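Bug #77: duplicate submission created two jobs. Keeping one. Sequence:
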Amino acid sequence: MKNQYFGRRRQSAVRAVAWMQGCARVAIGAGMLLNPAQAVRSWSGEYDEKASSLPSRAFGMRDLVLGAGTLWSLHRGHPVRHWFILAVGLELIDSSVTVNKRRITGRAGPLDTWELLTASGLLGGILVGALLDE
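Kept job's structure:
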């Protein structure tokens, strides 16, 4: 009986994290889609309308779709693990680009906001994908 209680509590917590990640992806994605200049400047410090607008909006749309799909599935009681597996794959690509950005710019020191968001998306996605009972 005690084991079932903790199992239900754990699933409730994992689903709450899934909701938070879905909401964060919708917010970040919408921000990148609607205001790519702000998003790109905060990540790289530079913004070139011709070079950056389309990729930034594409990343925004990607996160918006991942977040909306996650939230829709959660709301409907449908499985969501597949959304997190996809997101983790994409976060691994984002992580490699972010690590490469540090190498190219010679930047050391604490992580910036985008690096923290990438790391939290990766870690959160792995945890939700691994711990969710579906």
